[in-house]
Design a protein that fits this description.
single chain, 434 residues, alpha/beta, Fumarate Reductase Iron-sulfur Protein, Chain B, domain 2, 4-stranded parallel beta sheet, 3-stranded parallel beta sheet, 18 helices, 9% strand, binds iron/sulfur cluster
Length: 434
Amino acid sequence: MNEQEYKKMIQRCVRCSICKWIPQLQIKSQKYATICPSIDMFNFHSYSAGGRIIIALALEMGRLEPSQELADIVYKCTECGGCAVSCKFLNTLEPLEIIVKLREKLVSLGYGPMPKQQQYIESIKRYNNPYNEPHEERLEWLPNDVQIDQNAKLLYFVGCTSSYRRKEMAIAAVRIMKAAGIAFNILQDDEFCCGSPILRTGDVNTFEKILNKNLDIIESKGIKTVIFSCAGCYDTFKVDYPLYRKYDFRVLHTVELFDELIESGSLELTKEVPLTVTYHDPCHLGRNAERYEEWDGDIVPLMPFVSINIPPKPKRTGAKGIYNAPRNILKKIRGLNFIEMERIKEYAYCCGAGAGVKSAFPEMALNTAKTRIAEAEDSGANILVSSCPFCSTNLQDGIKDRNSNLQYYDISELILMALGLKNEKSKQATAGVR
Ligand code: SF4
Ligand code: SF4
């Protein structure tokens, strides 16, 4: 969103508060009718998308001075994008883009990122990962019996969290590709953080340097397809990178690849997995993974505070997120009983970890996770499954803190079970980065 669009759009919020709720027709119960973890936690209008847009407008008009207190409110948002989906039902605003831009402005004014977020940004600059881990140990998780093909045109971009904290996901991903007989490469010493934690906290200049470094390396190897088991890396490459620099390789999340492999018969799920499972849609694989459509039009004022887009701008409603692939996989696992939660797909409730909240505001991240865990319990499932390492960490923290009987698995771990393969668990201490 450029400066002109930002200034026009922040005037167009009609203060309806629809962004606090999932769209009315999608509501199944009062208990699970809300969409915004921030307003759910703090229950004051400033903590909603609409409230943050008023802050943005007041700052532009000079009626509010930037302050640390104000930055604190703006950063207590997981950038889950639920507000952006809900707003489209009556309005045509992009609240999520406004919040991202507002953070960028606060950074330029010296009021962001939050101190804890600044620490992981320094770690990324120094060690290429946000966890202060040695870069040379990035590939230590790779099992000895799995071979990398350095000439392969399919690249597995492992990501920092799967490399250092959720190794079971990386191990499962390569074991599944091995079982399917696919040749793939991994960048090894040349894989760096995708930049998502930096972008989402508003340090756009550093983000741009990182994305250029990653794209230069991938393009120099002639890669045709990049796959990701991390929803955050996937969304950043798929949706955010092209806003800064276009590329011409294909990007896929592992659930999309595995769904294709199962469909084509390259993976045969022969073993029974007799579990009752529900699925959490990660925000970065779901609604936020919908690409921006290019639009070349004018914003025409009709009256004070009211303007329209001519021609109409395509609405980014989140409906084009990746929802079918994980559900197809779960439905093809023999003996598995799959049941849905109330808030699913583009109306799914956030796990609570995103956009630097896990590191800067751990209590908010944990409370949000526990809300989601309660919803998973109410579905009747005893297994919670998802497809993102950040969701994995935060939801497991929620399960533990709530003393829930739920067990958590990444979807790739269920595929391993269905293939009859060894499932190596390497649950490490949780770390709050995202
Ligand atoms: S952001 Fe959209 S949904 Fe929220 S108050 Fe403004 S117009 Fe209404
Ligand atoms: S992005 Fe999510 S947490 Fe932030 S205001 Fe929107 S719904 Fe609330």
